[in-house]
Design a protein that fits this description.
Mean pLDDT: 91
Signal peptide: 1-22
Keywords: Signal
Number of strands: 11
Helix content: 25-40%
Oligomer: single chain
CATH superfamily of the largest domain: Periplasmic binding protein-like II
Organism: Rhodoferax saidenbachensis
Radius of gyration: 20 Å
Protein name: Polar amino acid transport system substrate-binding protein
Distance between the termini: 19 Å
Shape: globular
Pfam families: SBP_bac_3 (PF00497)
Number of domains: 2
CATH topology of the largest domain: D-Maltodextrin-Binding Protein, domain 2
Length: 249
């Protein structure tokens, strides 16, 4: 945190010198986001990778973020009704009117196995040979190839609490876990101490990356956000946020 704070202060000083903040000071922005999904959005709604990236990108160009958490359907409805300035974590297939930012974070779903098993998983179709634990609604979110495999899979289950996946893998109750790599790493140190989470794992990159964007009510604010995003990517703040939430290797 000291490094993140120092980098942010440096960025702010640079912007003040350029007059980017303006005489009127910061402006409040209502930013909608989903419910708890650590490490991307923490339960408080005040921390997490997505929250902090959005907050710092907006602050870099003179805006103060007010974060509001909603279930996905409600957040989308409020965005479409013009009740939010920004909605985080979307893609351009959501419909309705809005102005989309540059991608500000990239999710990476992977297949994870215990290294000692030495399982040869090189493509999505290879999952058909093993028991699989995935996150809730994975069958609808990971593409047609994955859906085709799991629809006829006799030993495939989805779990709303992703810490369960970690527990199942490390205790040998499932062959493969499917989920975002950062979410998996977040829960490793939070397992019961009786679970041996020190076992080496193998990460199989069989899914494409999933970049996330923010949708804005106003195109000018979208452009300012994109500019702020570039600032924090260039001055080290962005990388410091990712490192802060990296979890164990």
């Amino acid at each position: 945190m000291p490094r993140l704070r120092s980098l942010f202060v440096s960025a702010c000083c640079g912007l003040l010198a350029l007059g980017a903040w303006g005489a009127g000071g910061t402006k409040d922005v209502r930013v909608g986001m989903g419910l708890s999904k650590p490490p991307y959005i923490m339960e408080s709604g005040k921390e997490g990778i997505e929250v902090e990236i959005a907050e710092q990108a907006l602050a870099a160009v003179g805006y103060k973020m007010t974060g509001l958490q909603f279930p996905p359907a409600r957040g989308l409805a409020m965005q479409r009704a013009g009740q939010l300035d920004v909605l985080l974590g979307v893609d351009e297939g959501i419909g309705g009117n809005g102005y989309f930012s540059a991608p500000y974070v990239v999710y990476q779903n992977v297949a994870i196995t215990l290294a000692a098993r030495n399982l040869p998983i090189r493509r999505i179709e290879d999952l058909a040979d093993y028991s699989v634990a995935a996150f809730q609604n994975a069958n609808a979110l990971l593409g047609e190839r994955f859906k085709a495999v799991v629809e006829r899979h006799a030993d495939y289950k989805e779990y709303p609490q992703q810490i369960i996946q970690n527990n199942l893998l490390y205790t040998g109750h499932v062959d493969v876990v499917v989920g975002d790599r950062r979410i998996f790493r977040y829960f490793v140190p939070r397992l019961d101490p009786k679970v041996d989470a020190s076992q080496p794992i193998t990460v199989h990159s069989i899914f494409p990356p999933s970049p996330r964007k923010a949708v804005f009510k106003d195109p000018e604010l979208r452009d300012r956000f994109n500019a702020g995003l570039k600032i924090i990517q260039n001055n080290g703040v962005y990388d410091a946020i990712l490192k802060k939430h990296a979890g164990p290797p």
